[in-house]
Design a protein that fits this description.
seven-stranded mixed beta sheet, three-stranded parallel beta sheet, TIM Barrel, 249 residues, disordered N terminus, alpha/beta, globular, 10 strands, single chain, binds fe (ii) ion, 41% helix
């Protein structure tokens, strides 16, 4: 590459070099992600081309908005898995919105989770503009029930953008794993998220970088360039990939 003065360019990762994605919306027709099987397969092709070797899929469970149950999602996921085949292993978890339904599911111990470093990790999302009244309580309740809470796309919340240091301290004191969306680095969600994501990357804060992909075009436009910025030629989330690969084997 240096022959043409492009020495600073980062090469695309080899297929499978990145390990597993931890947060994405590939189950067809259950949330605002893939609308049908064709679209799910297109997204998977794009993820493979970007260097991913598998994915933990995380459809929304958001009472009043996406009223999915674990049983319904297991069924839809099994169909997707059959269509995709062994070439791109998948595992089912979910992205839970921090509202009343989540507390009911915690009480019933009915949570879709995935293993990260031997712990039962549960992905939680907060509202974007205003702090969830019981958001922190939900994270504490999960922890106290033996789960490892993972807070989704921490760089996207307006109130975290306003006071990042205070929020990071608060979350880390509870033992929450911090997940950032890769596309934020390239402006996929606007300047506020981009600025915070780049700051967090520079300080090596996030525990997990994930695609949160909903549409195939997002991969080439935002996620693949973000991947090259984070981990040129290397694995993104080795702990997740290893655990998920074992479970899928
Ligand atoms: Fe998501």
């Amino acid at each position: 590459m240096a022959w043409f003065g492009l020495g600073r360019r980062t090469p695309a990762p080899a297929p499978g070099a990145l390990g597993w994605d931890f947060h994405c919306h590939l189950v067809p027709g259950v949330d605002d992600g893939a609308r049908d099987l064709d679209e799910a397969l297109q997204i998977i092709d794009a993820l493979k081309a970007a260097g991913y070797s598998g994915a933990v899929v995380t459809p929304h469970i958001y009472g009043g908005v996406f009223d999915n149950t674990a049983a319904q999602l297991r069924e839809a996921f099994a169909e997707l898995q059959r269509a995709v085949g062994p070439g791109f292993p998948l595992k089912l978890a979910a992205e839970y919105h921090a509202n009343d339904l989540l507390f009911e599911l915690i009480a019933r111990d009915e949570l879709l989770h995935t293993d990260i470093d031997g712990e039962r990790a549960v992905l939680i999302e907060f509202p974007y503009l205003m702090e969830a009244p019981r958001g922190i309580d939900a994270l504490v309740a999960l922890r106290d029930c033996g789960y490892r809470p993972v807070l989704a796309h921490i760089e996207r919340y307006r109130y975290v953008q306003a006071q990042p240091a205070q929020w990071l301290e608060r979350l880390q004191n509870i033992g929450v794993l911090l997940q950032c969306n890769i596309g934020s680095l390239e402006g996929m969600y606007g300047p506020g998220s981009q600025q915070l994501a780049r700051k967090l990357l520079a300080e090596r804060v996030p525990h997990l970088w994930s695609s949160d992909v909903h549409r195939a075009h997002q991969v080439a436009r935002y996620i693949a360039p973000g991947v090259r910025r984070i981990a040129p030629g290397g694995a993104l989330n080795p702990a997740v990939g290893g655990a998920a690969q074992q479970m899928a084997a």
